[in-house]
Amino acid sequence: MMSNPDIESFGVLVNIQDYSDGELKALSEELQREEREVSRRRRIIHGKLDIIRAEIVRRLRDKHQSGGVLFSEGDISLLGGILSGKSLTGEGDPQQD
User: Cα separation of 97 and 81, whole Å?
Assistant: First the structure.
């Protein structure tokens, strides 16, 4: 019944009641394997983000200790534009149009 199912699609669940016990077990095992892989990748990405954030904080701390300016007027304007939903070109978010 299940010949090379597309695991990434809900299409494999159509007529699931027609699958044999073996097919259901194989599908379950494949989805569990995929879930473990996604979870592993997510943990790696979160680790990378943690390292990047720590480096940003370290640089800001070093800049502050050396008497440097942490934020410029341009940074504040850019942040205001981001928070108001404007792109870098000053236009609204194209996905919301």
Answer: 17
